[in-house]
């Protein structure tokens, strides 16, 4: 029977991760997969996570099942972090998920159950796994313009003009902050305009927020999603703790649904719970419990926020250093966008050939569309990258 299976294309980001590991050069620089690295190249366990895990080991008395939608304390704590008080409790359904990917997958399944004729709109470009999951679920998809390849900023006019084509019941995927892969983000005024348009069209926003705290800070990064969730009757929000809590392998995420009234909240919650049961029964608990312990304990929370802020400012300093190094080498401001972008990624705007040349000649690994993970740099490798970018003729 297995002879009927088709070969599957490898995920490009994951394939690059393997290729990097196998490269024997000790001068190699990994700007591929979206994982935070400290200046020594290590992805640390955050202090508050270690402390919470220790406390958990000391106090946990059972590994019995939690609830199908995850521990309600986790759902409350994480929805509070993302949404603040933008949505009243009796309007918000939520279920814990295995990471941000799990949340996106489940959100799309839910959308398909609610509207079998749904079309999914994605930014051009977007995280490749969005495309892959949409294809896997056999959902029709349309791309909307997002990134201006010349200015390396959001082409908001083109975005709005494309989104004018959304139909009632369509789903529009938006990146809550720190757009992956470009690093170019909507400002709050633009969020307001998008929200108004989607409201007018009766389309459902699905906001993927996987980098809260990596851009302009925990609150500022949530401003767009909070505006959408407080303004529209319906919205889906997929949140990930992989990056901002550094719990990548623990698979910790949450799918939230803002509903128009209490009755629809109940039905939506039943559907989220049902989907968990069909797909994996109970979501993973360890990462979720650790996150909840941190968020609900003022001391752990303060320590986590301060470490996250250090991560954010380190990335900002690297952005500035790289933009300056390129300015010095080229005598032009055309790389100034690197300091303007926010989050882990920037799309450099190099051709696939240039990306390949930087890998072959300089051991610099970035995703083929020239997405760079800024957190993969340190003070010393910034110059190596700047030399390679100039050498490749970007
Ligand atoms: C990325 O975009 O590199 C991360 O979100 C990791 C992943 O799962 O692709």
TrEMBL record:
An MF annotation (GO) of this entry: identical protein binding
One GO location term (cellular component): cytosol
InterPro entries: Aminotransferase_I/II_large, Asp_trans, PyrdxlP-dep_Trfase, PyrdxlP-dep_Trfase_major, PyrdxlP-dep_Trfase_small
Necessary cofactors: pyridoxal 5'-phosphate
Keyword vocabulary terms for this entry: Aminotransferase, Coiled coil, Pyridoxal phosphate, Transferase
Single Gene Ontology BP annotation: L-phenylalanine biosynthetic process from chorismate via phenylpyruvate
Coiled-coil segments: 301-328
Gene3D superfamilies, alphabetized: Aspartate Aminotransferase, domain 1 (3.90.1150.10), Type I PLP-dependent aspartate aminotransferase-like (Major domain) (3.40.640.10)
Record domain Aminotransferase class I/classII large: where: 27-389
Entry keyword Acetylation: no
Coiled coil in keyword set: yes
SUPFAM superfamilies per the UniProt record, alphabetical: PLP-dependent transferases (SSF53383)
Domain of life: Bacteria
Similarity remark: Belongs to the class-I pyridoxal-phosphate-dependent aminotransferase family.
Subunit and interaction comment: Homodimer.
Protein name in the entry: Aminotransferase class I/II-fold pyridoxal phosphate-dependent enzyme
Source species of the chain: Maritimibacter harenae
């Amino acid at each position: 029977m297995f002879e009927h299976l088709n070969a599957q294309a490898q995920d490009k980001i994951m394939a690059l991760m393997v290729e990097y590991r196998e490269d024997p050069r000790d001068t190699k620089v990994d700007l591929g997969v979206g994982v935070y690295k400290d200046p020594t190249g290590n992805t640390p366990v955050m202090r508050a996570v270690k402390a919470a895990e220790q406390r958990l080991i000391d106090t946990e008395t059972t590994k019995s099942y939690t609830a199908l939608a995850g521990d309600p304390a986790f759902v409350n704590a994480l929805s509070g972090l993302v949404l603040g008080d933008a949505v009243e409790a009796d309007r918000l359904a939520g279920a814990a998920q295995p990471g941000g990917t799990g949340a996106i997958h489940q959100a799309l399944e839910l959308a398909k159950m609610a509207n079998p004729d749904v079309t999914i709109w994605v930014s051009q470009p977007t995280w490749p796994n969005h495309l892959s999951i949409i294809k896997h679920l056999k959902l029709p998809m349309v791309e909307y313009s997002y990134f201006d390849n010349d200015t390396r900023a959001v082409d908001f006019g083109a975005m709005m003009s494309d989104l004018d084509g959304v139909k009632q019941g369509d789903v529009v995927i938006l990146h809550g902050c720190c757009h992956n892969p470009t690093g170019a983000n909507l400002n709050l005024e633009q969020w307001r305009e998008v929200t108004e348009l989607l409201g007018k069209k009766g389309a459902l926003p699905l906001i993927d927020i996987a980098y809260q705290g990596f851009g302009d800070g925990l609150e500022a990064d949530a401003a767009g999603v909070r505006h959408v969730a407080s303004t529209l009757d319906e919205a889906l929000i997929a949140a990930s703790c992989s990056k901002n809590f550094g719990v990548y392998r623990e698979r910790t995420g949450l799918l939230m649904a803002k509903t128009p009234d209490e009755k629809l909240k109940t039905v939506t919650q039943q559907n989220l719970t049902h989907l968990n049961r069909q797909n994996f029964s109970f979501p993973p608990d360890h990462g979720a419990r650790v996150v909840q312990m941190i968020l609900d304990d003022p001391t752990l929370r303060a320590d986590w926020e301060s470490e996250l802020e250090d991560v954010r400012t380190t990335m900002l300093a690297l952005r500035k250093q790289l933009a300056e190094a390129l300015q010095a080498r080229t005598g032009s401001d055309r790389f100034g966008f690197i300091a303007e972008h926010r989050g882990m990624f920037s799309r450099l705007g190099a051709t696939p050939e240039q990306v390949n040349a930087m890998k072959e000649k300089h051991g610099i690994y970035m995703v083929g569309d020239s997405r760079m993970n800024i957190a993969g740099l340190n003070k010393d490798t910034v110059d190596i990258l700047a030399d390679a970018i100039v050498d490749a003729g970007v």
